[in-house]
């Protein structure tokens, strides 16, 4: 089968021909129908710092935001059946470390991530433990289901940031996670959600098409002025989803006293912040990463109830052979979510535009 692999610690991916894997004990084989390109995949593609630990694991097939159909189950697997339509929680806990034993598998110290530390889903087939599978509601199609993971990351950040009814919120970043946070903050009851990008017209347009009328382009506007104009002061909550160090200070500058700034970006550089201001302003700085099993259940219910609300996030659908083209679109900020669909013939590749 065709698989998109990280084969060397340098920029780029290799399109490799590899055998279809067999499910091990407790596992199932999934035929991939849709797999989204994630911001973290882009980091791995570009080989920016922060992923050096992948080196001894190469070659590894990338891709963790996916959905597909179960085509084989290992003997003894009863929770999932052949033919089930599933999406998969890519973060796998060990079950034995202290965090796992305390019922917090999301904090597992020996976490394995499908698509980073074990073979992922930019391929026609992928194996996964059956326990990581969630059967899709009937009305959730594969491409919408492939949004589950990033929507969960957004939903979890909003839980960590404790967005409450009536809150004013600034979201820094218009990538998938920024937009997912904005959508989930609105669902959590935020009265105003300001979506901020920088020289990113395509994705700011996607934000507006999702109903966010308060957008700021830092290439032409100044953040504090715009926030002051829109909410008449500072905001209750800030979310950072850029990976750009300057955005932490930008975010703190528009956060009200006692407000919470939640960081979700992967930062390749350290950031310097004035701790005295942090203390005097009683600012809370929090980190959010991944999600919990409960978030997955909630987001799948949401997709079943109002999936169409989320479909505008998908701007491009490409075939497996065109995965690298999809990455280039993401890097050039010409796309919001690019979904790789292995069954799509290259000639059928369609852009929304
Ligand atoms: Zn992801
Ligand atoms: Zn563990």
Name the average pLDDT: 94
> Biggest sheet, in brief?
8 strands, mixed
* CATH hierarchy class name of the largest domain: Alpha Beta
Uncertain runs are none
Beta-strand segment tally: 19
How many domains make up the 3D coordinates? 2
Give the overall silhouette: globular
Q: Can you describe this structure in just a few lines?
A:
This protein folds into 2 domains: 2-147 and 310-351, Medium-chain alcohol dehydrogenases, catalytic domain (Quinone Oxidoreductase, Chain A, domain 1); 153-287, NAD(P)-binding Rossmann-like Domain (Rossmann fold), CATH 3.40.50.720.
List its salient traits.
alpha/beta, Rossmann fold, 19 strands, 353 residues, 11 helices, Quinone Oxidoreductase, Chain A, domain 1, binds zinc ion, eight-stranded mixed beta sheet, 2 domains, six-stranded parallel beta sheet, 27% helix
What does the model show?
There is one protein chain. The protein is an alpha/beta fold and 353 residues long. The chain has two domains: 2-147 and 310-351, Quinone Oxidoreductase, Chain A, domain 1, CATH 3.90.180.10; 153-287, Rossmann fold (3-Layer(aba) Sandwich). Helix content is 27%, strand content 25%. It is built from eleven helices and 19 strands. The protein has helices at residues 39-46, 98-101, 142-145, 148-160, 176-187, 201-209, 223-231, 246-253, 275-280, 293-306, 323-331; strands spanning 2-6, 14-17, 27-36, 60-61, 65-73, 85-88, 91-92, 112-113, 125-129, 133-135, 168-172, 192-197, 215-217, 235-240, 255-263, 284-287, 314-318, 337-340, 350-351. The strands form four sheets. Strands 3, 5, 6, 9, 10, 17, 18 and 19 form an eight-stranded mixed β-sheet that branches. A six-stranded parallel β-sheet has the order 13-12-11-14-15-16, with helices on both faces. Strand 11 (168-172), helix 5 and strand 12 form a beta-alpha-beta unit. Helix 4 (148-160) crosses helix 5 and helix 4 (148-160) packs across helix 10 (293-306). The mean pLDDT is 94.
